[in-house]
Each structure stands twice: as C-alpha cells, then as structure tokens.
Amino acid sequence: MASEETKQDVFKELHDAAEDVALFDLAYLDQVESRYAAALPDGIVTLPADVGERIKLLKARYLDLVDAFSPLKDYAVMRSEPSDQVQAWMLHNSAAFARAWLDGVWIEEESGKVVRA
Predict the structure, then answer these.
(1) What is the CA radius of gyration of the chain?
(2) For the chain, how far is it from start to end, CA to CA, in angstroms?
(3) H or E segment at 106?
(4) Dist CA 46 CA 17 (whole Å)
C-alpha cells in the first residue's frame, strides 16, 4: 500500500535530523531518498469523485490532457455552460484538473481519500 506521506513530510524530517550528525550515515540517507521518491507530491488537489473517474477513464483510453480539454474549447469561446457536470467542473477548475492529471493523484472530495490514477 502506498504511503500518505508527502515530500514535504520527508524533507522536514531530514531537516530536523540535520542537527544530529550521527543520523547521517549512508543507510539513513538511502532510506530517506527512497521515501522521498515514493512520497506524494505537495499540494495535492481535491476533486469530486466523478471528475476523478473521468481522469481515470481518459487515461485508460491513452488520451492526453489536450484530448481531455478539447471538448471544452467551444464552451470557452462561446461563454456558455456545458450540460455535462464533469465538463462544467473542468471548465471552471482547469488548473486543478490539469494538476491532478499531471500528478496522477488527488484527494476525493466526498471521501477525503487519496486516489491515484
């Protein structure tokens, strides 16, 4: 099971341990490096569950972020609102959607759980 630890958590521990020179052996540094590599990114975005499911669906179809946003271009130009709730959310929260897509991880709004694509 993946850790819920963020990169900032690992960095803070390393920073706090910097005062104790004895902790800085190679085994400890290797362990910290591994934990940092596996840690969640800082600033994980929160998405509604149906938006997260859309990300998973599009990625399963090997589509990219441009493909995900393509249906929204007409709404943005015409300044109209999509009838699809997920598309409407994407239109108004494009940065959060893109961040979740690129990071491959987000927090589900309804459950508060960390979800990975």
Answers:
(1) 19
(2) 15
(3) strand 105-108
(4) 31
